[in-house]
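Priority: medium. Attachment 1 of 2:
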């Protein structure tokens, strides 16, 4: 769940509303009363989760057992209307419904509708009630999002295995087409055999890690996103392994002593110094980046929040989904160098690809730029000033208990934490009292909190005098302490 306030880029970030990657609608039809009618925090009628009439946890009308009953398509497969969490279709549908219910409630509250009479008379009470309602509904959306991510990840191994074998078929087709006129050679046989070995190993790895993303499991970072450094290193490792297998296949098929000596000499360091250097650097970068990011997170110099599931766009973007120069240039330059090395291997399959030193140096410069970007990204959130919030018609006055204060600074909302469930986890320490930041909805997002401004009330439990204000972000990182005077 990720709804972004207008000042943070406008609209819905992370994909809900008009910008959701899965095409979720911006809102669902129908008005929502001020007090739920037998619904849960997600706004579903009939006691959701599973809140379809009939009472089945999982949402099939009239009950569902073993793939039978309403809502189950032909052949026992779950249909598009299934909202249970035991299949990708059901998890996706349950997430979609939760998002639609949340967006509807948020827009209703933003328009001033749906408030019960008990709190409508007080601005502070209504704001607190709306914030708690949205936080509960956002919690359900986050839960459904995690369920969808787990279901998607569990089915990813089949897609990765299918993509690997599709690549083998394309290689076979390409070799068959290029063999017309030139004839079939032992190098083509060795290349195809090496591809079969690599594909078999990746398929086996996918099956053993089928619950964690298949062959992509080693490429997924601790924040549940695809790691650019690990992906680039893994591609180079697979390419070098494939090249060595091609040479091994040709060596096994060679019958003459001179041919075997030539193939063995193709593995000498002088032939593949460029490729070996690039391989060593990208693998070292992958290990070093993990260490650097971990230390910066522990030192509260970098804010990281966990994603619901990995996406291919993670290779080119930051945690907030914005494209980053360091990642893009690293992927592009490594891809170009890898394509050049593959062409060299196809032209000269009797040795390791002789990557020219000029191109190898370009890859090394790209890797250094990527590493520098990792050192430079992020930063600790900071409070710059704290002032009394003043509405139109109010008189200028010192800060008193019960007043709203504006906390101005930077870095209050970590990248990737624009979701309402994450925003609701923000806390402000006012003296010894912990104040949860209220969610203030506006059409299409939230007015409070934002990345540079927080508005919270000063609790009556705060003792008059000099107190310190400190913000704790959704990533658990603390800002500096800022002292203010609270009068009676």
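Attachment 2 of 2:
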């Amino acid at each position: 769940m990720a709804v972004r306030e207008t000042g943070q880029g406008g609209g819905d970030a992370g994909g809900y509303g008009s910008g959701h990657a899965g095409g979720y609608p911006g809102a669902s039809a129908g008005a929502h009363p001020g007090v739920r009618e037998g619904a849960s925090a997600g706004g579903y009628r009939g006691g959701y989760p599973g809140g379809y009439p009939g009472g089945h946890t999982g949402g099939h009308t009239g009950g569902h057992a073993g793939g039978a009953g309403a809502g189950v398509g032909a052949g026992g497969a779950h249909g598009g209307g299934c909202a249970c969490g035991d299949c990708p279709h059901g998890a996706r549908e349950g997430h979609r419904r939760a998002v639609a219910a949340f967006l509807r409630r948020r827009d209703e509250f933003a328009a001033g509708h749906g408030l019960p009479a008990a709190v409508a008379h007080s601005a502070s009470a209504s704001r607190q009630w709306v914030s708690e309602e949205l936080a509960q509904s956002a919690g359900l959306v986050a839960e459904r999002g995690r369920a969808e991510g787990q279901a998607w990840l569990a089915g990813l191994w089949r897609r990765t295995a299918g993509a690997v074998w599709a690549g083998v078929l394309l290689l076979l087709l390409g070799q068959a087409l290029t063999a017309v006129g030139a004839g079939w050679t032992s190098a083509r046989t060795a290349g195809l055999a090496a591809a079969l070995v690599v594909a078999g190993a990746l398929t086996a790895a996918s099956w053993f890690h089928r619950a964690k993303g298949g062959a992509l499991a080693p490429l997924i970072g601790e924040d549940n996103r695809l790691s650019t450094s690990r992906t680039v290193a893994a591609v180079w490792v697979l390419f070098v392994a494939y090249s060595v297998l091609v040479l091994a296949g040709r060596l096994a098929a060679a019958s003459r002593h001179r041919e075997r000596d030539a193939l063995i000499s193709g593995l000498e360091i002088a032939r593949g110094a460029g490729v070996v250097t690039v391989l060593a650097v990208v693998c070292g970068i992958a290990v070093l980046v993990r260490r650097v990011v971990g230390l910066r997170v522990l030192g509260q110099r970098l804010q990281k929040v966990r994603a619901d599931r990995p996406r291919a766009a993670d290779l080119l973007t930051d945690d907030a989904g914005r494209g980053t120069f360091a990642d893009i240039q690293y992927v592009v330059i490594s891809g170009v160098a890898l394509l050049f090395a593959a062409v060299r291997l196809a032209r000269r399959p009797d040795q390791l690809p002789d990557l020219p030193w000029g191109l190898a140096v370009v890859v090394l410069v790209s890797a250094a730029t990527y590493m520098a970007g990792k050192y430079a990204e992020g930063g600790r959130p900071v409070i710059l000033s704290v002032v009394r919030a003043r509405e139109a018609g109010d008189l200028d006055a010192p800060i008193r208990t019960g007043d709203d204060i504006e906390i101005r600074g930077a870095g209050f909302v970590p990248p990737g934490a624009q979701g309402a469930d994450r925003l609701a986890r923000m806390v402000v320490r006012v003296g010894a009292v912990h104040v949860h930041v209220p969610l203030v909805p506006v059409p299409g997002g939230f007015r409070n909190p934002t990345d540079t401004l927080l508005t919270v009330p000063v609790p009556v439990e705060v003792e008059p005098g000099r107190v310190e204000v400190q913000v704790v972000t959704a990533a658990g990182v603390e800002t500096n302490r800022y002292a203010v005077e609270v009068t009676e």
